[in-house]
């Protein structure tokens, strides 16, 4: 086994920190509204004063919903041939942030709504130079297999 | 504000027309609307047009200018409106405003679109500052997967079955087969729908709308003109436009706040419809028919509930009992809807006004809602745009 070089699909959205994987966003000090990705200003119309600071989110949340991407998605999404369907999810993080994400599993039995899920950073495809291109995903915390 | 009437409507059939430009299709629709209204082109005082992202408009969404040049440059003002798939509804709202305000007496509203083949990219940008671009780059969640996730949540909350979903597509084609302007006019069984390709679990191919080419036009005018030209005008009781609320919980872009209260819904659609009903002085239960944006069967369940047309969790049973057919108590999409037409994105808001007008004039033939007096049209577009209009006879 050789270790493949890994690069993020885009910069500045997620990171492996000492405490584990995190999504990189921001939060308004005035109204506590969380943002992902980072926002330069607060969009809450009830907020008196936009005061943004960097914040990171994760790793725990619950699966609000999910779906399977059964056909190869149009650009700018990329995938390796032959195409294998993958699962996408909508996850409510404990910090009050709802995010969209890839799921690390794609079988429907493992994707129970309202189940606890955990953030992970994993490859989605290998690029022309053989590097693994990573994004944020969520994995169910407990196997639902009985 | 003055009373506004729909005097004429016209449509180019929906389908795929490789050898016809969007402007040619708009001309067919415009000429039909003018003829229906008994109005000459040179009497049109202004044009409100939907800006197409995919076709014509000199690449700048100047589709109204294309129509005016093609029909004859009379020097009239043109308003090109961009609101994603809500652009047609948005153009109707501006046309209505121009007549209602007294600025003009006779305005053409037009929307036409030629769509690229296959599944479309939702974002028109390739910039990493654009949230929709990032969503596709990092997650890969095109429109159907977004609809599928909303649908999957409903299945969890209300026990919606695969058969419940399929039944809506069956119903759409049961009516749409009668519409000569529709692209897909064959009937399907529940089994046919469930055997069609899985596009994005839990949604099958026949449970989402494909993209189509199409064009529609409506001629709207002041009450004075309407009374001179016709004995049976259709009135615009209200027209409204809205954008999404910050806290509706709908997973747009990459992230949003988890809603503190209330259900997750397209707040833009609920606001637009709520305002349109209020301005028209119409209770949700008084509507005789609804033309709503059924990009997917899911919306035909969720929207009537979001807007108070029925109780939460009731929609599946209404469909099962046939209540959403033209002969039922809550007729939805008697045109056949997006499922039978396919989406010619920016033309759809104008398409709905055409169908509502035919219904309120009792010209809809086999898909007629008996005794239709009040109808609602609604569109939805990228960017959190929505429109609604109430028409009365
Ligand atoms: Zn704030």
Structure description:
The complex is a heterodimer of chains A (146) and B (393). Chain A is globular, with a radius of gyration of 17 Å. Chain A is mostly beta strands. Chain A has strands at residues 6-8, 14-17, 20-28, 34-35, 52-57, 60-69, 86-93, 97-103, 116-126, 132-140. Chain A has no helices and ten strands. Chain A starts with 5 loop residues before the first strand and ends in a 6-residue tail after the last strand. Chain A has one domain. In chain A, strand 9 and strand 10 form a beta hairpin. By secondary structure, chain B is an alpha/beta fold. Chain B has two domains: 4-118 and 213-234, 3-Layer(aba) Sandwich (Peroxisomal Thiolase, Chain A, domain 1); 141-208 and 236-392, Thiolase/Chalcone synthase (Peroxisomal Thiolase, Chain A, domain 1, 3-Layer(aba) Sandwich). Helices cover 36% and strands 19% of the residues of chain B. Chain B has 13 helices and twelve strands. Chain B has a nine-stranded mixed beta sheet, with helices on both faces. A two-stranded antiparallel sheet of chain B has the order 5-6. In chain B, strand 2, helix 2 (63-71) and strand 3 form a beta-alpha-beta unit. The longest helix of chain B has 16 residues, at 22-37. Chain B is globular, with a radius of gyration of 20 Å. The A-B interface holds A 9-10, 13, 23, 25, 33-37, 43-45, 64-71, 73-79, 86, 88-90, 92-93, 96-102, 108, 113-114, 124, 135-136 and B 118-121, 126, 128, 131, 133-142, 145-146, 148-153, 156, 197-203, 246-247, 249, 251, 254-258. Strand 8 (97-103) of chain A pairs antiparallel with strand 9 (255-257) of chain B, so a sheet runs across the interface. The complex binds zinc ion.
Task: Please tag this protein with its features.
heterodimer, A: globular, B: 393 residues, Peroxisomal Thiolase, Chain A, domain 1, 2 domains
């Amino acid at each position: 086994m050789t270790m493949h070089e890994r690069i993020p699909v885009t910069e500045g959205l997620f990171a492996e920190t000492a405490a584990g994987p995190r999504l990189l966003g921001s939060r308004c000090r005035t109204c506590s509204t969380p943002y992902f990705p980072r926002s330069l200003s607060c969009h809450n119309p009830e907020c008196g004063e936009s005061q943004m600071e960097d914040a990171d989110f994760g790793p725990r949340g619950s699966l609000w919903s999910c779906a399977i991407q059964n056909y190869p998605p149009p650009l700018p999404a990329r995938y390796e041939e032959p195409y294998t369907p993958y699962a996408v999810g909508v996850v409510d993080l404990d910090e009050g942030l709802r995010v969209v994400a890839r799921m690390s599993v794609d079988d429907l039995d493992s994707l129970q709504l309202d189940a606890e899920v955990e953030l992970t950073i994993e490859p989605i495809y290998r690029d022309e130079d053989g590097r693994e291109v990573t994004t944020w995903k969520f994995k169910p915390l407990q196997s639902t297999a009985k | 504000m003055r009373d506004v009437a729909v005097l004429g409507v016209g449509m180019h059939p929906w389908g795929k027309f490789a050898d016809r430009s969007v402007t040619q299709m708009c001309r067919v629709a415009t000429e039909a609307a003018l003829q229906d209204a008994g109005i000459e082109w040179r009497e049109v005082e202004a044009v409100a047009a939907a800006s197409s992202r995919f076709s014509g408009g000199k690449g700048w969404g100047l589709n109204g200018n294309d129509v005016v040049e093609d029909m004859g440059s009379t020097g009239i003002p043109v308003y090109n409106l961009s609101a994603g798939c809500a652009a047609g509804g948005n153009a109707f709202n501006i046309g209505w405003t121009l007549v209602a305000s007294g600025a003009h007496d006779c305005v053409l509203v037009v929307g036409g679109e030629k769509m690229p083949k296959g599944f479309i990219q939702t974002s028109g940008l390739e910039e990493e500052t654009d949230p929709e671009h990032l969503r596709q780059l990092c997650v890969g969640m095109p429109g159907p997967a977004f609809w599928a996730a909303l649908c999957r949540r409903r299945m969890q909350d209300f026990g919606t079955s695969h058969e419940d979903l399929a039944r809506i597509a069956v119903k759409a084609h049961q009516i749409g087969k009668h519409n000569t302007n529709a692209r897909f006019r064959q009937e399907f069984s529940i089994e046919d729908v469930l055997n069609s390709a899985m596009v994005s679990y839990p949604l099958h191919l026949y449970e989402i709308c494909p993209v189509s080419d199409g064009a529609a036009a409506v001629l709207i005018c002041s009450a004075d003109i309407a009374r001179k030209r016709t004995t049976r005008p259709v009135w615009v009781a209200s027209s409204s436009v809205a954008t999404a609320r910050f806290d509706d919980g709908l997973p747009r872009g990459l992230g949003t706040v988890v809603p503190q209260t209330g259900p997750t819904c397209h707040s833009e659609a609920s606001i637009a419809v709520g305002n349109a009903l209020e301005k028209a002085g119409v209770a949700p239960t008084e509507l005789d028919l609804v033309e709503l944006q059924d990009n997917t069967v899911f919306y035909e369940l969720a929207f009537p509930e979001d807007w108070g047309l029925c109780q939460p969790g009731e929609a599946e049973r209404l469909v099962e009992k046939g209540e959403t057919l033209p002969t039922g108590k809550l007729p939805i999409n008697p045109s056949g809807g997006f499922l039978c037409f396919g989406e010619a994105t920016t033309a759809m808001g104008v398409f709905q006004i055409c169908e509502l007008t035919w219904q309120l004039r009792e010209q809809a033939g086999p898909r007629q809602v008996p005794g239709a007096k009040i109808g609602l049209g609604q569109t939805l577009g990228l960017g959190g745009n929505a429109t609604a209009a109430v028409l009365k006879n």
